[in-house]
Amino acid sequence: MSLSIINNVASLTAQNNLNRTSSALATSLEQLSSGLKINRGADGPAALVISEQQRAQISGLQTAIANTHKAVSVVQTAEGGLNEVNSLLLKIRGLAVDSANAGVNDANSLAANQAEISNALSTINSISTTTQFGSKKLLDGTNAATATTSNVLASATASGTLISGAYNVTVSAAATAATVTGATAVAVQAGGETLTINGVQIALAGATAEAGQITAINGVSANTGVKAVDNGAGKIILFSTSFGTGHKITVSTTAAAGTGTGFDAASVGANVDGTNIVGAINGVAGSGVGSTLSAVSGTASGLSVTFAAVSVANPYTSDSTATVVNVDASKALVFQIGANAGQTASLAIDRSHADSLGKGVSSTFASLNVIDVTNSANAAEVLKVVDKAINDVSSLRGRIGAFQTNTLESTANTLQTTLQNTTAAESSVRDTDFAKATADFSKNQVLIQAGTTVLANANQTNQLILALLK
User: Fold this and answer.
1) Which of 209, 260, 288, 463 has the most CB atoms in a 10 Å sphere around its CB?
2) Please, are residues 115 and 122 in contact by the beta-carbon 8 Å criterion?
């Protein structure tokens, strides 16, 4: 290497290396003090982009977990209100059973029972109206899904997590009612006949013509659960007012065989039980109970369709027309349970007012709201309605509980796992590896010290020229 005064290349080289080492030492100090190995874009452009995306996801996951826990609080509030409704229904049922004890109760006792029932119904209505989370009503039907159909013989209900849309309902076998047909044509009698149907005696004195006998039988349908029609050949057909299995008809008569209404031992032996409806909703086989077809799986789960009698001429067979049901679930509660757009879950909560419970099982009482136990003869009908109301509330509680357990809590657990793994991935990209950083720091410290010494020596090399000039 030549010796020169103007340019000290050795010093410049030492300065360059010292500057690089000084910059590396500053980076090590920043990483150690901040805990991050990526503090700016220049530290790792690609890593910064990936890290920021993961940070956004982590923030979303944390909020989604908090959202899910809040949603659990909402559904628990609704379920708590329904639990009280259920307790009141059990009390009402006990009073209804007590009122059926006609051999003990007088008019005052029945009136007292009815007063207590009315008070309980008022409380149920109050719970339905006032149960809320913040200012959001939960049980008044505000968040219920609605279902409509153009089929005049079909009515539909929607609940659970149904989404809005059109659902196709096809019936392969309509529901039927239990039937008994008289063995012979109705005969005109000079005397009266006592016909007993399901334990209820019907005096047919003065009703010797078929039309009069049918009128007498239908006059007590609320107590017997049975109606009568002419079969077109002078015989009377008895049919249960409820569709499906389990509605057998027992009938006996004081008239001799072949006289009166035409019912005899042969008729009773021909007692035919009803059948449940069979069909599918959106192509998936549904569950049929009586004339109600319900979707228990698939996208239509939570949709039920009830078909009425085809016509007066054929009153013991339900409608089997294919039907389209339009569901509007736009008012259902929607919960954001994911970190990204569209990751939501919805829950429709049915109205729990007394006039919405216990419907469709009694020809005497349209709903729980109008039950009356002051007449012991209504006991069976009251119990039907109350039992249906208990089933309505229990089913709703079951759906809410399933939503809490299977949707919200399971989602929260999944989100927690995802958050853990995403945080670990973000940490590997951005967090300082202190083992490596401290090693680099120690190396850079030594290099700084060495570089400083070397630079001092390089700056002194020019003095060697003075020795040549002597």
Assistant:
1) 260
2) no
